[in-house]
Amino acid sequence: MADRESVPALLRVLNGERLDPPPIWIMRQAGRYLPEYRELRTRAKNFLDFCYSPALATEAVMQPLRRFPLDAAILFSDILVIPDALGRAVSFVEGEGPRLKPLVDEEIWRFDAPERALQRLSPVYEAVERIRHAIPKDIALIGFCGGPWTVATYMLQGKGGDKDRSRRAVYERPEDVDALLDVLVEMSAQHLAKQVQAGADCVQIFESWSEGLSPLMFQRVIIGPTRKLVRRLRELGVTAPIIGFPRGAGAQFEAYASETGINALGVDTQTPADFAFKVAPEGMALQGNLDPQTLIVGGDALESAARDVLIAFKGAPHIFNLGHGITPEATPENLAHLVRVVKGQ
Questions:
Q1: Of the listed 18, 41, 99, 120, which one is catalytic?
Q2: In sequence order, what E strands does 65-214 have?
């Protein structure tokens, strides 16, 4: 058995250990705030081609690790590779985000077989293998997928933004929506299992659109599918820790933490640490939750806010992160400052 000190700090915390200082990684740490990323992005004709290029994806992952002493790498990909692989073509409009043909406009919903879809995603798993070989053993590698409901919302209405059409579809076409969520549960489980087989140490489920749901709908489209996804992952032999990130869940946060089977809980910016402590199962690792805006402002405001987060999560196994992804307006200098503060340097 490996010596405990040789286990990546992130994994030790996911296993319930409290570390000081806490490990740190940043959602979207490979991204447009880095000038070298912006240059790299020009080498692919579109964003999905970038995601499907193992060489480019690996380089994107390595860029922030070269600059900052972060404790984890996360696969460079996108949550919408799953619908794309299922035959629902995805495009990205500059300045507007992803676009798909809305399912709500179609009478019959058709998807390609999961086996074929997984073959299409083979470049993603090759990227995981390359990243695993490229990063030091003390850096954890995180795989990920979108939560079934979050991915479904894009498929249902064809874009992000207001989710009214997606929520209405749950009432108007309940059986179709349930079937869609089941397809996404199976596909997401297989996708995550392939990432772990390729070298990911743990995985995160990004349920980015958890807000605005009634308690009954939250149970139906978030809790139920996530519980099925976690159970299916375990049936596939995946023992790696699972981080769930239900952004905007609000009062439904407790149900998500206790009923889905996740191992660690991502805390968004709006959720107080003491509330997360109160509702999460005892000993569960908590991840978060610095306001991303502080990485634009920098200076004393950033340092003060970071110290507040460190103090707020002092009593639990904690992974330092943002409460949502880093924004393009943030600066590398401010992120470097944040890492120094967190690590006590």
A1: 41
A2: 72-74, 91-93, 97-99, 140-146, 202-207
Distance (Å, rounded) from C-alpha 202 to C-alpha 167? Answer: 31
Q: Which of 52, 125, 154, 256 is catalytic?
A: 154
Whether 12 is catalytic: no
Is 125 designated active site? Answer: no
Question: How far apart are alpha carbons 125 and 206 in whole angstroms?
Answer: 19
Q: How confident is the model at residue 1 (pLDDT cuts 50, 70, 90)?
A: very low
Specify whether 28 is catalytic.
yes
A 10 A CB-CB count for 137 gives 10
pLDDT band for position 109 (50/70/90)? very high
pLDDT tens sequence across 295-342: 999 999 999 999 999 999 998 999 999 999 999 999 999 999 999 999
- Which one is catalytic: 12, 28, 165, 247? 28
Set 37, 52, 71, 78: catalytic member: 78
Q: Catalytic: 154?
A: yes
Tell me, yes or no, if 32 is annotated catalytic: yes
Amino acid making up residue 191: H
Q: Is this prediction's pTM over 0.85? A: yes
- Is the pLDDT at 145 greater than 50, yes or no? yes
SS3 category, 84: helix
CA 116 to chain centre: 24
- Going along the chain from its start, the domains and CATH numbers come out as 4-342 (3.20.20.210)
DSSP 291-340: -TTHHHH-HHHHHHHHHHHHHHTTTS-EEEEESSPPPTTS-HHHHHHHHH
Write the pLDDT tens digit of every residue in 151-210: 999 999 999 888 999 999 999 999 999 999 999 999 999 999 999 999 999 999 999 999
Considering the candidates 32, 67, 227, 340, report the single residue annotated as catalytic: 32
Phi and psi dihedrals of 34, rounded to 5? -95, 125
Residue with tokens 């340097």: 345
Check: CB of residue 100 under 8 Å from CB of residue 89: yes
